[in-house]
Amino acid sequence: NNLLTLYGGTMVANNYYAFTLGTGWNTRIGAISVDATKSHSKQDNGDVFDGQSYQIAYNKFVSQTSTRFGLAAWRYSSRDYRTFNDHVWANNKDNYRRDENDVYDIADYYQNDFGRKNSFSANMSQSLPEGWGSVSLSTLW
């Protein structure tokens, strides 16, 4: 069926798991999807974090110009939601040492101590003439 897709996924690692369930609809105005993710993270120090996040996304391909558009919004409904990157960082942050030559300091990303509530992304990709590839633009708030 090209109109409705059910999907799911899981990630399992040492002291971490997350699973996602969602659905997507193909409409005349583009594809719309919604999903929910539950995560469980047990830190090396024994702290346990269980949380949920929700996503809604819209994607559109304009065949006349070979242009792709995408929008997505996430709601982190609980402070204890952890991505796998969050889980790994929390277990290793005390061992992190910034190199003086680093342009980007990952500690800056995690300075809010995982208290994020929402995020939003937008992207656009334009195919170029044959053999020239494509140009893409994306942003995350």
From TrEMBL:
Gene Ontology terms: cellular component: cell outer membrane
InterPro entries, per the entry: Fimb_usher (IPR000015)
Highest taxon above the source species: Bacteria
GO BP field: pilus assembly
Pfam families according to UniProt: Usher
Molecular function terms, GO-annotated: fimbrial usher porin activity
PANTHER family named among the record's database cross-references: OUTER MEMBRANE USHER PROTEIN (PTHR30451), OUTER MEMBRANE USHER PROTEIN HTRE-RELATED (PTHR30451:SF3)
UniProt protein name: Fimbria/pilus outer membrane usher protein
Biological source species: Escherichia coli
